[in-house]
Amino acid sequence: MSHNISTTKSPINDLKQQFLEYIEIEKGRSLKTVENYDRYLSRFIEHTKVKNPADVNDSMVREFRLWLNRQETRREKGLAQTTLKKKTQNYYMIALRAFLKYMARMDVKSMSPDRIELAKIPERSLDLITADELERLLDAPDTNTLRGLRDRTMMELLFSTGLRVSELCALPREINLKLDELSVRGKGEKVRVVFISEESKKWLKTYLDKRDDMDDALFVQILGTSKDENKSGGKGLAKLAVGRDSMRLTSRSVERIVKQYAVNAGISKKVTPHVIRHIFATDLLRNGADLRSVQMLLGHANIGTTQIYTHVTDSELKNIHKKFHNKERK
Questions:
Q1: For residue 164, is it within any domain?
Q2: Of 53, 141, 172, 234, which alpha carbon lies 20 to 30 A from 70's?
Q3: CATH of residue 147
Q4: 147 and 294 assigned to the same domain
Q5: Domain enclosing residue 166, as ranges
Q6: What is the distance between the alpha carbons of residues 300 and 186, in angstroms, rounded to a whole number?
Q7: pLDDT digit string, tens, across residues 156-166
Q8: Distance CA 247, CA 256 (A)
Q9: One domain, residues 110 and 137
Q10: What pTM does this model have?
Q11: 169-200 b/e with 16+ CB inside 10 Å = b?
């Protein structure tokens, strides 16, 4: 598989290709990550016209960053123009820094990767829904149909495990319901254990008992209408997608499903599978779980990523302060 966007042959392009193969094979990065790194590095090389690694320097990188900062993008909806987000600009610098580290490892003379600093970005804010809204979301599917059963089971499992949507979609059908745990392969091909609540196990068993197909995926596409299922007494699949190697649901499909149930439940906030992951994490912290344990359950490589959730639980500190501070003063 060729990842090269630029067809121009030069020492730096040859090294870029070697680097992309290195992160794919030795570092085990996903093909999507490799493609992204290719795009970021190719844009740097094409804009700066650099051909030799030794020519990469501070002023070249600074000029590229200024150019990036002034790039405009179109919003997804409408035609309004907006500048490239700082977070996106940082992705370019992360890719370039990794490339420079690789060249240093290969004893290729170039700019030191330590010279690159990432732009400061605003603290990320969390989109959360209330406990009442979560219950309304979970209750929204019509569980008299297989489609509704599938969707209720998906959302219960997301809340029980804190899985990423891609991890949920990759789950196999063969799950040992006698155990309270699942092994999942997350980012960077890292395997971790997540735990299933009794409520989730109940819905999983009911959903799997209704399945009469042979697909290996846990969550599959269902075509047809609820009327079709009602005619058959709700037993079995209304109609499963055919003509594909697998009927496995995609991440995008799950996102659309969750969004629609949020609308049906009268929730005005934007609700995604990742919002349910946020609720999973904040629920654990509010109930006394330590940050390190939450990091492990979420599959975060860096505890700094997990610390975003502590800001949400800061509201609990006010009650603690009021309850325990300066009790001896009258």
A1: yes
A2: 53
A3: 1.10.443.10
A4: yes
A5: 131-316
A6: 9
A7: 999 999 999 99
A8: 17
A9: no
A10: 0.66
A11: bbbeeebeeeeeebebebeeeeeeebebeeeb
